[in-house]
Design goal:
Elements: H1 5-21, H2 28-37, H3 41-49, H4 64-71, H5 74-82, H6 97-104, H7 107-115, H8 127-134, H9 137-143, H10 160-167, H11 170-178, H12 193-199, H13 203-211
Helix pairs in contact: 2-3, 2-4, 4-5, 4-6, 5-7, 6-7, 6-8, 8-9, 8-10, 10-11, 10-12, 11-13, 12-13
């Protein structure tokens, strides 16, 4: 299995170093990125009133909305949503604001972005897979109330059930199985959720998957 750890870590590293790597006084563009990343809602609002494009992106294609979602900042995210951003944009890694909110584990931001019309079932990595991978049970449960494919797989064949099984998230494995997740899907390496759980010695998850007919 090739989980999104590398891509996630790379994305988080870029986000985490963004503010410190920018020149201290290089104009409104950098002021806005700094304001979003330091949770300065007043400055964000002021810069938007002065005409800053709500769809401004950093060098890696992360919009202001994506930054707020990654930061778990519901106040700034709501300010940005009121200014009608393009919520369907993705960054250079293929992540949307909704995907980053699911990765972060902010249920309030996930709900706000879904209500605003975000794509809940993109091709490849999905918000559900990200939430399952990180163990965000409430977000997984919420996403399963929407019209999404519970067995959607990433380009390398990872499903939400595989992600949760690999990382030891027992409750999420349970809810996914209850909702009909296929325990016998295989990834590009011909591994199933059960194989991943066995490799990580997640014995409780192994038992659940075997009871569900997993092989």
């Amino acid at each position: 299995m090739m989980p999104p750890i590398g891509r996630i870590c790379r994305t988080l590293l870029i986000f985490g170093t963004l503010v410190s790597s920018q020149p201290a006084h290089s104009g409104a563009y950098d002021d806005m990125l700094k304001a979003v990343n330091t949770h300065d809602a007043d400055q964000v609002s002021a810069l938007l009133r002065r005409g800053m494009d709500v769809n401004t992106t950093d060098p890696d294609g992360n919009t202001l909305l994506m930054l707020a979602a990654r930061n778990g900042d519901s106040q700034i995210l709501e300010i940005l949503l009121r200014n009608k951003p393009n919520i369907l944009k993705i960054n250079k890694y293929g992540d949307s604001a909704l995907m980053l909110a699911a990765l972060r584990g902010s249920l309030v931001n996930v709900k706000a972005l879904v209500l605003a019309g975000s794509d809940t079932a993109p091709e490849g990595w999905t918000p559900l897979i990200y939430a399952a991978f990180e163990g965000h049970l409430e977000i997984v449960a919420y996403l399963l109330t929407l019209e999404i494919d519970i067995d959607a797989q990433s380009a390398n064949g990872i499903s939400a059930l595989m992600a949760a099984s690999r990382n030891g998230h027992l409750e999420i494995v349970g809810i996914l199985l209850e909702q009909g997740a296929d325990a016998n899907l295989v990834n590009q390496d011909d591994k199933t959720a059960l194989g991943m759980a066995l490799a990580r010695k997640h014995t409780d998850i192994v038992s659940l998957l075997q009871k569900a007919g997993g092989r």
